[in-house]
């Protein structure tokens, strides 16, 4: 052993029993804190350090052992560095140990001194608090004395006011000076309320009794004044004056019930003429003279403003009460007379009566707030549980009503009486809508579909659909003003009927008729091909065999866009009707069936466009199956049938895209549905290309790739600026066209080794074990039936093994 210093030891000396080389295991929380304070990425510093793994990491191969001396030297150097750091740290702590003890002792002495100072401060604070309590106690006593003195002075003032007021009222009663009584009575009653806590005091009780006696005496005199004014011998010659105005002021203070009686007397007196003039037996009572009723009220209100508005307190709102009572009498009388003469009502008369009534209600709504119809906000009746009896003894005319507060209660206050007869009005709307639909039909027959320029910023929606819904909205607005109940349900049924008519007579009737199906076109193409000497002569460059012309395609797109507009607008119409109708009837409103009709038209329009495009491509696909793929010797550019299909797509799809500019989602749906259907049809025709040699399979693979490239860009075909198609569309094209490519790659796969061929098939076809598809591919390769049986059995075994392995993996997971 070689010593380098008093404590240094040679690095090469290693004693296995030395405690220094034992593994030090720290608690997990301690280790976590150390990792936070001293983060390290060194493998040796890890808690789960494994020497064997670490050495294997340093020397992964035998060749790496050539650097063992360098690694050992590096480790020894690191050990020496750590030992040096440890020694320096230990020496540093030994030098500062004495200073640390001294500092700790000084800190303890400082804490003790601070604690003593805090105790002295607390003692002084307690003494200050006691002193403040003594001061505030004296202040509170002075405040109580001041409050009692103020209350005494106030009570004495009130008592003086009460005594003086009673004396003045007694004098005024004797003189029948109602102006003075009205001026004095309210303050006296208010002051008396302040003495309710002292009512058991004899003197206060005596004053209260005096006030009650005076009030009763005043009520008797006032009632007599009112009876003389409204029911006395000179009632017809009654002239408003200040004397009666003072009487009303007194009534307003002392007796709410008497106030209601006065209101009733006034209403009965002023409406008696109206009830006589417009009773059922009179000619003026019928609907054709209904405007005379409203003219009478206008004159009555003018008379009220000139003669009576100054004698009644403003908050009695007598003009509004007069109007409300008039409306209720009118509603009741109209309902009775219409019930008795129902057979005489026609649409013209009913419409006239409704228009005049709604116009009158609008005028009334602008003038009055409707406070007398809202019991909660009525200052006259809000504190009473009594009803104001109407002029005819019918409770229907109560001033306290069960009507719910509205922004204005006047719309419908009279016109609701027409609700039971609105079936006549709805029937007329039904006839009018039928005429409108017929007009639309005639317009389309005469002028055809409007010319459409196309583009995303313009709409291909038929103008007649907008006209129809505008008409619907107008009908709804008119009917909702008259009723929010059952008549609106009749209107719903009318709308539903004419929406179905519009769908059938305008949209469905104008869809192009596609009697020629794809299968019939296939047969025609086959016959056509057989009569030609060779295939290329059948399909010429740029040839188009679409059944629909551009006008028919435009019409199909227009029907689609219109149906989409109808679906959206029907939902808005339904929401609007649910806002208007009574809440209890909301659940009975549903236009779901009508929406489904227009959705079906959308689907039918898309299907017509898809069928037309498929029919255009069908002869080219048939031509593909008639080519002799077994005799092809070289791979060239894409085949003519592919060029023909692409030309069809470039011709038809831009037209459809242009006319569905405002309905992009349905254009994408058209593209997605078409490619899904077309690629499956392409694969079916691919199976019919048999037998195929290797060169023919390569040519088909090239053709398939060309088609895939075009189909991926189908939504943006022929556009200068291409737009990325939706992911779902791209996914469908890639999935289906990749299958077509894999079929051809299987055809290109040698089948010398049946097992390897089957494995390649399953790998390329994504483990598809369908026997039918496999057999079709074997026929494309030209393999005979006897050889096919062996390969099919091999496919069954390999596919069963794959399924078993997959199930085993699932169970293990």
TrEMBL record:
One GO term of the biological process aspect: retrograde transport, endosome to Golgi
Coiled-coil annotated residue ranges, if any: 104-145
Keyword Coiled coil: yes
Subcellular location field: Endosome membrane; Golgi apparatus, trans-Golgi network membrane
InterPro entries: Vps53, Vps53_C, Vps53_C_sf, Vps53_N
Main location: membrane
Transmembrane stretches, start-end: none
Domain Vps53 C-terminal, chain residue ranges per copy: 698-783
Domain spans labelled Vps53 N-terminal: 48-445
Membrane-related topology note: Peripheral membrane protein
GO cellular component terms listed in the entry, alphabetical order: cytosol; endosome membrane; GARP complex
UniProt KW Transport keyword: no
Family (UniProt): Belongs to the VPS53 family.
Record's protein name: Vacuolar protein sorting-associated protein 53 homolog
């Amino acid at each position: 052993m070689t010593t380098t210093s008093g404590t240094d030891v040679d690095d090469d000396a290693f004693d296995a029993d030395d405690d220094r080389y034992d593994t030090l295991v720290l608690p997990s929380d301690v280790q976590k804190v150390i990792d936070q304070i001293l983060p390290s990425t060194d493998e040796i510093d890890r808690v789960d350090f494994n020497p064997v793994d670490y050495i294997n990491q340093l020397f992964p191969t035998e060749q790496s052992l050539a650097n063992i001396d360098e690694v050992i030297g590096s480790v020894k150097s690191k050990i020496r560095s750590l030992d040096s750091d440890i020694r320096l740290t230990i020496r540093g702590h030994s030098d500062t140990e004495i200073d640390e003890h001294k500092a700790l002792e000084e800190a303890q002495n400082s804490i003790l001194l601070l604690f003593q100072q805090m105790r002295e401060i607390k003692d002084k604070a307690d003494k200050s608090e006691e002193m403040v309590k003594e001061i505030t106690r004296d202040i509170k006593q002075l405040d109580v004395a001041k409050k009692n003195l103020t209350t005494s002075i106030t009570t004495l003032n009130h008592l003086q006011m009460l005594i003086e007021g009673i004396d003045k009222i007694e004098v005024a009663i004797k003189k029948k000076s109602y102006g003075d009584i009205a001026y004095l009575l309210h303050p006296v009653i208010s002051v008396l309320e302040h003495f309710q806590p002292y009512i058991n005091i004899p003197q206060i009780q005596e004053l209260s009794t005096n006030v009650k006696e005076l009030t009763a005496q005043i009520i008797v005199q006032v009632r007599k004044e009112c009876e003389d004014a409204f029911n006395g011998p000179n009632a017809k010659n009654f002239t408003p004056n200040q004397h009666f105005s003072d009487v009303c002021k007194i009534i307003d203070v002392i007796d709410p019930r008497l106030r209601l009686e006065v209101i009733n007397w006034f209403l009965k007196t002023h409406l008696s003429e109206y009830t006589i003039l417009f009773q059922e037996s009179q000619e003026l009572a019928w609907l054709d003279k209904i405007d005379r009723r409203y003219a009478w009220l206008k004159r009555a209100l003018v008379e009220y403003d000139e003669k009576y508005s100054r004698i009644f307190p403003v908050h009695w709102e007598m003009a509004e009460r007069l109007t409300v009572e008039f409306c209720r009498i009118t509603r009741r009388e109209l309902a009775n007379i219409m019930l008795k003469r129902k057979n005489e009502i026609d649409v013209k008369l009913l419409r006239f009566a409704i228009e005049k009534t709604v116009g009158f209600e609008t005028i009334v709504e602008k003038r009055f707030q409707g406070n007398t119809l809202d019991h909660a906000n009525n200052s006259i009746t809000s504190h009473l549980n009594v009803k104001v009896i109407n002029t005819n003894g019918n409770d229907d005319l109560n001033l306290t009503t069960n009507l719910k507060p509205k922004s204005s209660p006047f719309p419908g206050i009279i016109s609701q009486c027409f609700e039971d007869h609105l079936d006549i009005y709805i029937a007329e709307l039904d006839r009018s809508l039928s005429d409108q639909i017929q007009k639309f039909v005639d317009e389309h027959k005469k002028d055809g579909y409007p010319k459409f320029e196309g583009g995303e910023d313009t709409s291909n929606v038929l103008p007649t659909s907008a006209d129809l819904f505008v008409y619907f909205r107008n009908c709804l607005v008119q009917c909702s003003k008259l009723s929010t109940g059952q008549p609106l349900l009749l209107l719903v049924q009318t709308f539903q009927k004419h929406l179905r008519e519009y769908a059938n007579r305008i949209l469905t009737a104008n869809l192009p008729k596609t009697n020629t199906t794809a299968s019939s076109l296939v047969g025609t193409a086959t016959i056509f091909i057989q009569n030609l000497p060779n295939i290329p002569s059948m399909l010429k460059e740029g040839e188009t065999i679409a059944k629909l012309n551009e006008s028919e395609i435009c019409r199909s797109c227009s029907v689609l866009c219109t149906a989409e507009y109808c679906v959206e607008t029907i939902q808005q119409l339904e929401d609007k009707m649910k806002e208007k109708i009574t809440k209890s009837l909301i659940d009975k409103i549903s236009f779901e069936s009508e929406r489904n009709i227009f959705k079906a038209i959308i689907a039918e329009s898309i299907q017509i466009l898809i069928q037309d495009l498929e029919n255009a491509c069908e002869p080219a696909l048939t031509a593909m199956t008639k080519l002799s793929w077994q005799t092809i010797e070289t791979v060239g550019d894409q085949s003519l049938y592919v060029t023909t299909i692409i030309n069809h797509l470039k011709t038809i799809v831009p037209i459809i895209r242009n006319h569905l500019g405002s309905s992009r989602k349905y254009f994408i749906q058209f593209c997605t549905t078409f490619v899904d259907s077309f690629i499956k049809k392409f694969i079916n025709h691919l199976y019919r290309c048999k037998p195929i040699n290797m060169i023919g399979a390569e040519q088909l693979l090239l053709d398939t790739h060309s088609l895939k490239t075009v189909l991926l860009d189908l939504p943006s075909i022929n556009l200068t600026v291409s737009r990325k198609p939706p992911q779902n569309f791209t996914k469908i094209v890639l999935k289906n066209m990749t299958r077509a490519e894999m079929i051809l790659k299987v055809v290109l796969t040698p089948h010398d080794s049946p097992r390897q061929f089957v494995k390649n098939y399953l790998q390329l076809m994504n483990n598809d074990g369908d026997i039918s598809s496999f057999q079709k591919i074997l026929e494309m390769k030209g393999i005979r039936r006897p050889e096919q049986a062996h390969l099919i059995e091999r496919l069954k075994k390999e596919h069963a093994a794959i399924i078993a392995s997959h199930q085993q993996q699932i169970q293990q997971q």
